[in-house]
Amino acid sequence: MAQQSAPYTGPDVKTMIATHTLATNIITRHNDPCPVLDGSELVLLRRFVNNPSSSQQILKDCNMVDSPETSKRAGDGAQAKGSLVGFIVANHSLAGDGAGHAAMTDAEIGELKRWFDSGAADERMRGAVATGMSV
User: DSSP labels for 52-90?
Assistant: First the structure.
């Protein structure tokens, strides 16, 4: 019988985004039995923090572009795929156009980039494929 993972006990995503603590929680809860992000989401997040200006291309590559006909808000395409990172990427893209509110600040993105560069997430990302990516 498959063992269930531990329940997530951290703050909810809405609170982390509103208080700009999402990056800190991703890092500090990384080794928890139930981390904020799994390996595939970490792969996608690393791609984003390495080049935030590529957000539209990332969304296209992962089939997470919001549909003009059905999307009511930024990130609906990512939410349909169950991707928190896709939601962050979509909102960052719009914030740069003055049309939205960034889910992560430049300081948070820099903090995550340094964390990824340190290799701390490598083990969890090993063998993972970015969410939504075609393989």
Answer: GGGHHHHHHHTT-PPPTTT-SSTTHHHHHTT-HHHHHHH
